[in-house]
Design brief:
single chain, 4 helices, 74% helix
């Protein structure tokens, strides 16, 4: 599974964070729809995996204070 994630360019901790956020969102709703319970973790994981680095680059470009990372793993 780890090799497949590396092939897709997704880091496992980011995937877990996105899935966890999506699960919490799905469970916090009063009405549960099966579609939302499935789509929310998937969307959260994809957003976390593919939007983290562009957002960090945007923060750097706008001069917002962020820690000086040694590599992208520190940022994620």
């Amino acid at each position: 599974m780890h090799d497949l994630l590396d092939l897709l360019g997704i880091k496992a901790p980011v995937l877990v964070a996105g899935l966890s956020g999506g699960i919490l969102r799905a469970l916090s709703r009063h009405r549960y729809k099966l579609r939302e319970m499935i789509a929310s973790p998937v969307c959260g994981a994809l957003a976390a995996a593919y939007l983290t680095l562009p957002v960090v680059s945007y923060f750097k470009a706008t001069g917002l204070p962020i820690p000086d990372p040694a590599d992208d793993t520190t940022t994620l």
